[in-house]
Amino acid sequence: MFAFLLCVRIMMNEGKIDQHEWHYLLSGGSTQMTTQNPAPDWLSDRAWRDILALSNLPAFSSFSSDFVRHLSEFRVLFDSLEPHREPLPGIWDRNLDQFQKLLVLRCLRRDKVTNAMQDFVATNLEPRFIEPQTANLSAVFKDSNSTTPLIFVLSPGTDPAADLYKFAEEMKFSKKLSAISLGQGQGPQAETMMRSSIERGKWVFFQNCHLAPSWMPTLERLIEHINPDKVHRDFRLWLTSLPSSRFPVSILQNSSKMTIEPPRGVKANLMKSYSSLSDDFNSCHKVKHAWCLIALGAGINYGGRVTDDWDRRCVMNILEDFYSPVVLSPEHSYSASGIYHQIQPTYDLNGYLSYIKSLPLNDMPEIFGLHDNANITFAQNETFALLGTIIQLQPKSSSVGGQGRDEIVQNTAQGILLRVPEPVNMQQVTAKYPVLYEESMNTVLVQEVIRYNRLLQVIIQTLRDLLKALKGLVVMSSQLELMAASLYNNTVPELWNAKAYPSLKPLSSWVMDLLRRLDFLQAWIQGGIPAVFWISGFFFPQAFLTGTLQNFARKSIISIDTISFSFKVWLPSELKERPEVGCYIHGLFLEGARWDPVAFQLAESRPKELYTEMAVIWLVPTPNRKAQGQDFYLCPIYKTLTRAGTLSTTGHSTNYVIAVEIPTDRPQRHWIKRGVALICALDY
């Protein structure tokens, strides 16, 4: 990322990169024009929308029409294993430079954008800029002095302490190194340690500065007061910290900084573990004593960090593949291809190491029981995380070509204001849908309208304020400044997010989604309770589920605590009215598997098909329900693709909704390791 930014900045100064195109790469574009997707069988609607938005840029004005003309050639690019190295169809290969080709790739194959960035840096700077660097302490030490701290910026899974102790030994300083792990009450001791080391020329090592935020101002003062004339020239201050907003900026600016990236993947982690072993590790011959391991591993070693029940279910199932008697047979393979297999017991340490070196550099999803599509999801997430971080690093005010940033923000704000309706009239809703004992859905509707109205009021008010601030009629507050940056970068402003439902969509899609949700409510208000509920349209789906159980409990005159749902998957064509009991829901997406409407059960995903629509599900309230047999998969429903939430004040998760049973002819374990879940809303 650093190398890419450096490269782009140099090329911008030389006038080789257009600001509008740079902006499109980072945040995508939006388009009001929606024409029919020309190839729905392989091109996602998201990609087609991106192509239409790309065609708004001058250099790409004929791109969408040309795309339709050359569909079969673009399909070849889409299916390629290395699309970032394929020539573009038609005129585009010679008309576009290497940077502009990144934009086409962003539309069609997001998962390969990071690879294309690497090629871009290698071509325009030098290949050495993309090769991983090894942390060389002696090189850093040569550039340091007694008044400049040396900071290790930590990343999860790394600990530079061992490297530093080893380096201290090489420099004959291990006896003159004092270390302390910061935390509550360690401040005074650290201060004493530092003062004596400054005079005697020792090294001080303060670990985990992020755990002592209240002591950081003291550390800042101590460093500022190091007198260059009086300090011993051998004195060095080493610090480690996770990135933290409480870390003093002045220390950061005046220090040498290093970071060690954690080993990524099975190969790198195994190398790290086995490289640190000594040759006598073969002396243990008692192999068959490990069957309590799974409880230890899943429940304690990993389980101590895993608080979510669904995550624990996943960890237990993955570990069963490794902690099981079958792995002791010398021929055992851990996955279908046979690449990951049991190491022969006759090997010495070098034998183990040479086997590990033969493993693929990038993990194959099969080793974790995942579908090959998981690689695409992972790479796409990596691309968006990278672009998102670059956006945060952009200067806050810059003129974009001829059209200033303010003008773009103003157009976006006016466009949203025109499309977003006024809040719903509450009195009409409560008059038509009064609180009824036998119909809890009325209460659910009223609560939903209240929540959406609250969000609409914030959106409309803040957009009006921002437009006034841009004209200079009111002061541009820091909150409005942040909001302007969000509108410019096609992300949802924090002011709205605070009042909204969880969503990962970029701003343009978020607004479209909000309008769809409001249409769902309006159809309900005008046409009566729907036959099939769009579960993704609810602000708070848990209340809707509780309302469905409540209706059944009141009708059957039994306690709601004794009722839970059973599930039937239905074909949607036949549903024109509400069922006698329970409710129909639609609008869910399957990730990790697909629904097979012919065999009426879960099936493997098709290649490159990351999400598929789930059929209608009938939720049937059932009293005193017994656990079902093995012919289903218990599938969690989440609101967004992150699948992680926090417990809100109502006791409900902010992301997890409910688990449903989906028919399957495979064991549950298969789908658990596939990571199969139902998602209410995707990220586009």
UniProtKB/TrEMBL annotation:
Source domain of life: Eukaryota
Annotated Pfam families: AAA_lid_11, Dynein_C, Dynein_heavy
Domain (Dynein heavy chain region D6 P-loop): residue spans on this chain: 146-259
All residue ranges annotated as the Dynein heavy chain C-terminal domain in the record: 380-680
GO molecular function, a single term: dynein light intermediate chain binding
Annotated GO biological process: microtubule-based movement
InterPro entries on file: AAA_lid_11, AAA_lid_11_sf, DHC, Dynein_C, Dynein_C_barrel, Dynein_heavy_D6_P-loop, P-loop_NTPase
GO cellular component: dynein complex
Residue ranges constituting the Dynein heavy chain AAA lid domain according to the UniProt record: 293-374
Protein name: Dynein axonemal heavy chain 1
Species annotation: Oryctolagus cuniculus (Rabbit)
